[in-house]
Amino acid sequence: MEKIGRNDPCWCGSGKKYKTCHMATDDKIRHYELQGHIVPDRDILKTREQIEGIRASSVINIAVLDAVGKMIGPGVSTWEIDELVHDMTVQMGGVPAPLGYEGFPKSVCTSINEVVCHGIPSKDVILKEGDIVNVDVSTLYKGYFSDSSRMYCIGEVSEEKKKLVEVTRECMEKGIAMVQPWNFLGDMAQAVNDHAKANGYSIVVEIGGHGIGLEFHEEPFVSYVTSAGTEMLMVPGMVFTIEPMVNMGSSEIFTDKNDGWTVYTKDKKPSAQWEVTVAVTENGHEVLTW
Description:
alpha+beta; 15 strands
């Protein structure tokens, strides 16, 4: 880290002197770094102004998912969901972040049953009784990104699928509870993974969460299969997603070779995912999207 004098302006742009702003935090980070832990660079840490921007983006994100919940059901096409997400996001002054991202063709991801993630909406994909579907909404608003997803049970769903959806949400909640300053991302990961395994499920290894805010995907990569006491130190100002992908069967996955996006479970058993954007605060955490 760049050396800053005690009475110099703080690097975060608050206008305060360094000694009354981030000096104590930086000293603590350095202490962990000297012990060999992975610590965040300053560009990973968001200022209060930036978190406020992410919070404003999250308002749109949550409103869109609320609207999806009111219209979704048997007979609805994933193309209709995409239209709603696109139009409502734009009407509220935002931009659907997935549209055009690395070539993704739609404004939202809709992942049904054995689709783990990145399902592409289509007029030909009609939701039917008994389906479970993840709708993943990502929003850009005035330069700030937010990201969240919810599971929806379509009509009468089997007890087996219903349990998967409920346990996956519990996994996310157990992860959220571990978001505390000076914990490690591995603490959160182990809480998630332990709960999934206790219920006979597995966690996808290759795809995880990510930092977010100024870009759609930032450092760090957030795994849900690592051990407590490992991975990056959680520091106030970090903002990242918690989004475990929980499989009913094996954790093995594959990507559709035709569209290059849609990820499936290898054994064709169902998968579920819930996602929130969370900020590490001085005393705990703030869930920005729910």
